[in-house]
Amino acid sequence: MLDMRYLRKNSEEAKQRLRDRGVEAETLDQLLTLDQARRDTIQRVENLKAQRNEVSDKIAYAKRQKEDASDAIAQMQQVGSDIKALDAKQAELDEQVNEIAAHLPNLAASEVPVGPDESANVEQRKWAPAHYDNRPEALVKTDWVKAHYDIGEALGILDFERGAKVSGARFLYYVGDGARLERAVYNFMLDEHRKEGYTEMITPIVVNDSAMFGTGQYPKFQDDAYRVAGLDQTYIPTAEVPLTNYYSGETLPAEDLPIKFTALSPSFRKEAGSAGKDTRGLIRLHQFNKVEMVKFTKPEQSYDELEAMTANAENILQKLALPYHVILLSTGDMGFSAAKTYDVEVWMPQQNVYREISSVSNTEDFQARRMHITYRDENNKLQLVHTLNGSGLAVGRTVAAILENYQNQDGSVTIPDVLRPYMGGQEKLEAKSHY
RNA sequence: GGAGCUAUGGCACAAUCUGGUACUGCAACGGACUCGAAAUCCGUCGAGCCGCUUUUGGCGGUGUGCGGGUUCAAAUCCCGCUAGCUCCUCCA
């Protein structure tokens, strides 16, 4: 949610910044007109209420003195019905204002490149382990490189067919060493984040509507959510929702900030509108595992913490020796709640592209305002915290990247060094006759 | 799933039957006493939200779990809901 006072006072600037986020200027004009009408109504109804309070006190006093108050009561009957009518009008205006305000995306930070879509994103840095000679393209020059889903199926560790049979398209079973590898990957990630000072959590994976509103998924993006039939609850699209809403409605002790959480959770997405895209493999599923990071910070420290969180995501890829680059998203490519977002993209040699494996965002006070998370500053005044979230990392996509980058010509896959302790010292994935 | 009870400031509670300025204590804050502290005494104390404003502040509105209703007036009466507790039932 944006700060209404800012929008009123700086409407021209706000209009431009909203236009950068794809919102038409008329939308803000409409909002401000309704806001003005709302405030006019409030003033009228509050005057009447002040009058009612005053006269009611007099009536109470008169009754205590056993005096007659029927004149005053008759007079207040009219005021009472006027108040009722104006209250109703205000409630209607409140709803109209909220309807627009709740759909406005966050404003981008000043250093975010302005552009309509991903074409305006800006690469920040590139990394690859030494044996790639800083040229991840090197691997693709061999003609035997296979896609991760072909590798996984050949090894018998990814079963998409039975996933589709039992659940539908975009679901799968991990089998045997595949399941073990997935578990090794997320245990490794959680251990790393724990070392970095994140508190490990296991969260509910079903949340109520106010939680989905708090982080910004609702009301605008309900189509992509798995709602529990008949209940006002939703299967989470990311652990960001339960982690960030953990403190909703609370005032945090300033000395505890920044607070850092991490959690593994399944994530559920309908992927509405992406029919036909990435139909094979681990890239775009209705259910996938993700290790998430969330931070609550003071405003002045949130951008340093954004850099730190991005480094936490990169650290995982560096320890896994997977090539990646980091891009700064443009105003047109950022998510609804974000003020600034870095995407980390891992090298996928078979497709010859970088694929998103993490997205790290500072939402500033956008989510905190929606869910009322505050702290007391040096002057003992309540301030909204800043919230950040980032994947650290998408587990399934990490497994896909490992399969492709660590594949050998004989069809086996070498297990990255750092994962071997998590797999009982196993060094390779090889085809087995059966599991 | 069934039955009963409960929900009031940061905490503990009163007022609910019988509608009329939400009691008191603790904590907190300011002050007195003291070399300093404790104790004691005096004073302040409804968080948050909304609106207006001449903005270190002032005024008004709202605010007794949430949402409605009745009434000149609701903590109090009525309806719906949520959460917690106890018992029954079920369950990994």
From TrEMBL:
Cellular compartment(s): Cytoplasm
Gene Ontology molecular functions: ATP binding; catalytic activity, acting on a protein; serine-tRNA ligase activity; transferase activity
EC number: 6.1.1.11
Residues the entry annotates as binding ATP: 269-271, 356-359
GO BP term (any one): seryl-tRNA aminoacylation
Chain segments annotated as coiled-coil in the UniProt record: 38-65
Domain of life: Bacteria
Keyword Coiled coil part of the UniProt annotation: yes
All residue ranges annotated as the Aminoacyl-transfer RNA synthetases class-II family profile domain in the record: 180-416
Calcium among keywords: no
Keywords from the named record: Aminoacyl-tRNA synthetase, ATP-binding, Coiled coil, Cytoplasm, Ligase, Nucleotide-binding, Protein biosynthesis
Catalysis performed (reactions): tRNA(Sec) + L-serine + ATP = L-seryl-tRNA(Sec) + AMP + diphosphate + H(+); tRNA(Ser) + L-serine + ATP = L-seryl-tRNA(Ser) + AMP + diphosphate + H(+)
InterPro entries: aa-tRNA-synt_IIb, aa-tRNA-synth_II, aa-tRNA-synth_II/BPL/LPL, Ser-tRNA-ligase_type_1, Ser-tRNA-synth_1_N, SerRS_1_N_sf, SerRS_core, tRNA-bd_arm
Binding site for L-serine: 238-240, 269, 292, 389, 391
Domain observations: Consists of two distinct domains, a catalytic core and a N-terminal extension that is involved in tRNA binding.
Function: Catalyzes the attachment of serine to tRNA(Ser). Is also able to aminoacylate tRNA(Sec) with serine, to form the misacylated tRNA L-seryl-tRNA(Sec), which will be further converted into selenocysteinyl-tRNA(Sec).
Name listed for the protein in its UniProt record: Serine--tRNA ligase
Originating organism: Leuconostoc pseudomesenteroides
Taxonomic lineage: Bacteria, Bacillati, Bacillota, Bacilli, Lactobacillales
Gene that encodes the chain: serS
